[in-house]
Amino acid sequence: MVTTPVIFLPGSLCDERVFADQLREIDQPCEVADLTLDDSIAAMAIRVLRAAPPRFALVGLSMGGIVAAEIAHLAPERVLAMALLDTNLGAPDDLQLRTRRRWASDVRSGHFTQVVEELLPNLTISPEAHGPLVVEMATAVGPAGFLRQNEALLNRRDQQSIASHFRGPTLIACGSHDRLCPPQAHSDLAARFAQGRLLVVEQAGHLSSIDQPEVLTGGLTDWLDDLNRNQTKRRTTHESANA
Q: Contact at 8 Å (CB) between 173 and 221?
């Protein structure tokens, strides 16, 4: 069976550890992109594309989902499928703009730790269990990396139109208790994709990949199995036609 390469795109203040359980269980080529080096969504997408195989699937969490949509916009012929997790493809609203501008000011004033502490209750439903991991990832990204990511998110454009153009299998997943990107928004987004499917992960917050890793991994595995079967069928049909 054909196995499709998968590129994982972490959210802001996250690294490969946010996908640790998924990377351990998914039995096909996987890599995790570094989204800490650029201060625009477009630049992040271009950097991923430069290092990516010719064709691939994308798994993007939060900011990573926004980058995934940009990649699909820039190179639709290379993206076979997308999983968009706990994400918002719309442009930032006024409250988000004010909050992110305040965070930028606070971090530049030396209060990075306080910003992470403010964010923590909105990221996981189990701060006691998962808070140390979130803080470790945020510390690894660091103030400079966060400021670049924050700038990218401040200036992101509305990318919801990708739903009407993208034709590959699309998994839209979110935590049932995601305060930042609520389930209803994900339900609306999934309905707009030609091959969209919705997975609401119960008892999970914004970082559904660590709050309920087994459930999310199961959803990703089913989505990838369907993709691999379809790719195998297409290759077999093509080879038969050219035999």
A: no
